[in-house]
Amino acid sequence: MFRAGIDKGGPHTPKVVRKGGPHSPLCGEAVLAVASARGPPGEARDKGGFTAQRIARTTLSRPGQTTLRASSIASKLPPVKAALLLCLALTGLLPAEVKEEAVTHGGASFRVVKLSPAQVRLVWKDAAGQPYRTFDKVQTTFAKQGKSVKFLMNAGIFEPGGIPSGLHIEDGKELHPLNTAAGKGNFFLQPNGVFLIREPAGAQATPRASIHETASFAAAEKPVPPPRYAIQSGPLLLLDGKRHPAFQDGSANKKHRNGVGVDADGKLVFAMTGKGQVVNFWDFAGLFLKLGCKDALFLDGDISQMSLNPADKVESNQFGAMFVVVEQ
Description:
The protein is an alpha+beta fold. The chain is built from 6 helices and 20 strands. The strands form 5 sheets. It has a 7-stranded antiparallel beta sheet with strand order 3-4-17-16-18-14-15, with helices on one face. It has a 5-stranded antiparallel beta sheet with strand order 10-9-13-11-12. A hairpin with a 2-residue loop joins β14 and β15.
């Protein structure tokens, strides 16, 4: 395995994700906001009658929500189209950007992304039954469906050919079985675990994520309905708030690593060491504790990569399964 060196992401341009319909009063606010961006007589304007200085200062925001950067329309759109763009942003019809935060722990810096289970999907093979292996092939597939990829991360340890080392469930179908065998390497450092996303019965049910010890998952009754997505990896970083028993404080075994946890609010917490950063398992588990997770699962090491809001095709290492967030 080798260390990833390329991670091309797009510009982080936040969009308002206020809910509403195209006839929402918020659209009227958008028109007023665009109108307010017109400058006094004599100030340089674009073809739509806007001034870059005024547009750059014109923003729409709501408490607890992101703000649309209206400067993006400064020199491109006439008034009506500019207002429509703001209207779409306010009503949530434009795709929202995925955000990351930088977190420092144990002497290392990490890239952290928090997402709801409803946003995330797991992919391994394309419609022809061939493993995607790379980020750009996933992007190409969804682009043909008119969708843009907002988040990509490798999802677990795999065997030659990109075959998952253990359980893989995708869209409710088991594509690779649970692996309860003994072996060497991180995957087999017991206890290892299973990450899953379930959609409870009921029209208004919200998808929920959880992480389980492999042996307990194997012994339990099969959940109904079955998981929508599941991936097995190892070792478990945390189980019920406790670190894996094999981890040692102060260990010199430090590497580039990525993992996933579930916090107290049910959010998925994806974390990866930053460029040039390394961490041991003890401190990596401690990071997830710091982020409010009681359960967390190690995904992979040196080859791991994550890309957010890519504007272009992303060159990546070859993987097995991948976590993906897509928008229409």
